[in-house]
Design brief:
This protein has eleven helices and two strands. By secondary structure, it is an all-alpha fold. α1 packs antiparallel against α4, α4 packs across α5 and α5 packs across α8. The protein is globular and about 65 Å long.
Length: 249
């Protein structure tokens, strides 16, 4: 059955699985620190991470880590082959990686906004944020409430700087969004919904919920805005290609 999957989708799945095994059994945790996607202004950021983060998934040692890669690869297996055959290999590769890049940049654009907001509040509380970011040992002073608030804000900054994003979800959301754009009346069944639902109704719901969870901060450790970034790129590319799809294929 695996040989019946078209080559690009098949190879992406294989690479993800191989990288996951190497990262977890041979080079853990060093490969996670090297290939996961850190905030671009973090000292841990490397330029190649804008691509390599798409092939990293949560460690199986963490709760839900194995399900992270299994769910992503199953979703890609479900939607990828159709689009690869319809769009052709070149467009499909562009769709996948452009969506992954879109997810990275939207997620970190929001991180930048949050970072600036937190930095401004720390300055107002009298904290020397410039010295802190340069690596100096900066003391915290003020009233008890002020000190507590500064510590909370510093922890938030550390979360942005040193918590990496990882996974193929953004790229795969682009694939799903492209599928929904090209085949809006296709029906799919998902958990917790007893009847199949058309993708043209399901995708907007998922995007709106993802935006809410990403902006509100109630989404736990899931990079919801990365999903939105990938879906946006996938939708835009599919809209462009849909007009000329049969002319070029």
């Amino acid at each position: 059955m695996f040989n019946n999957i078209p080559p690009i989708t098949r190879n992406i799945i294989i690479i993800n699985i191989v990288v996951y095994l190497i990262a977890n059994f041979l080079y853990y945790p060093s490969l996670y620190n090297t290939l996961s996607g850190f905030y671009p202004f973090s000292p841990n950021f490397k330029s190649w991470q804008i691509i390599t983060h798409m092939f990293m998934h949560a460690p199986f040692r963490e709760p839900g880590g194995l399900m992270h890669i299994l769910f992503n690869m199953f979703t890609l297996f479900s939607f990828g082959p159709v689009l690869e055959r319809v769009l052709g290999e070149k467009k499909y590769i562009l769709l996948y990686f452009a969506s992954g890049l879109g997810s990275f940049f939207l997620f970190n654009a929001w991180n930048f906004v949050e970072f600036q907001t937190i930095s401004s509040e720390l300055k107002e509380l009298g904290f020397n944020i410039s010295a802190y970011l340069s690596g100096a040992n900066v003391s915290i002073s003020g009233s008890a409430d002020t000190i507590l608030r500064q510590r909370e804000l510093i922890e938030s900054l550390k979360g942005i700087m040193y918590t990496p994003m990882m996974g193929a979800s953004g790229a795969i959301f682009g694939v799903v969004a492209a599928f929904a754009t090209l085949y809006p009346d296709a029906k799919i069944g998902i958990m917790f919904i007893p009847v199949p639902i058309k993708v043209k109704y399901l995708l907007p719901i998922i995007v709106v919920v993802s935006i809410y969870l990403g902006v509100s901060g109630n989404g736990g450790n899931v990079a919801h805005l990365a999903h939105v970034g990938g879906a946006l790129v996938g939708w835009l590319l599919a809209r462009i290609w849909k007009k000329h799809l049969y002319r070029f294929n």
